[in-house]
Amino acid sequence: MGQKVHPIGFRVGITRGWDSKWFADKDYGRYVAEDLSIRAHVKRKLSSAGISKILIERAANKAKVFIHAAKPGIILGKRATGLDALRNELQRLISTDVYVHIMEVRKVETEAVLVAENIAAQLVKRVSFRRAMKKALTQARRAGAKGIKVMCGGRLGGSEMSRVEWYHDGRMPLHTLRADVDYGLAEAKTSYGVIGVKVWIFKGELLGDEASTS
């Protein structure tokens, strides 16, 4: 029986870095709780901005939050007033000084989290799951992805029995550590129940200096 490993956790320290970069001796638990609250707040408040990932770095009494978003204009608002408001909200959640940096995601079609959320949003709007999945495959391949795999599980199409269906196009080397595989998970809360969406996107192989081991 095949054992399943998280594609991102499998490659941390080899081709991927940590999403939270800091060291703590005494306040480890508090920092972990603060990181979770920051990510939950940003995801909840800025869901329409297309958040792909949130990186957090800590040094001394400073916390830097790097938000990768497909629509940074929604976060910034007019004259960057939205950014200041977000920083003040995050400041209330943690005890250290917060600095927020917004990073624009250039290729939305090759970010697994955004692709999964897009498919989930279409399922909520009662779009055919096959059409949504095949469209994601086509767009990712056109954007330069070497391979993509999409899986949906639940009461697909309102059927009585839940099932899992998946499509893939191109290569998907899940056992190759140097492979740059992005993974995303989203849930579509439909009238029939929750449908889970998983997306794997293979962007190529990282060699030597390209690999991020930090």
Rg on CA atoms, Å: 19 Å
Oligomer: single chain
Q: Could you list the spans in which at least 5 consecutive residues all have pLDDT below 50?
A: none
Please report the total strand number as a whole number.
8
Helix content: 25-40%
Strand content: 25-35%
Biggest sheet architecture: 4 strands, mixed
The ordered string of helix (H) and strand (E) elements is: EHEEHHEHHEEEE
Spatial order of strands in the largest sheet = 1-2-3-4
Shape, per Cα inertia axes: globular
- Structural class category: alpha/beta
- Total helices: the number is 5
End-to-end Cα distance: 34 Å
Could you report the average pLDDT, rounded to the nearest whole number? 90
Your description of this structure?
The chain has 214 residues and is an alpha/beta fold. The chain has helices at 28-45, 72-76, 81-93, 112-124, 129-142, and strands spanning 20-21, 51-59, 62-69, 97-104, 147-154, 163-170, 179-190, 193-205. Strand 5 (147-154) and strand 6 (163-170) form a beta hairpin. Helix 4 runs antiparallel to helix 5 (129-142). The mean pLDDT is 90.
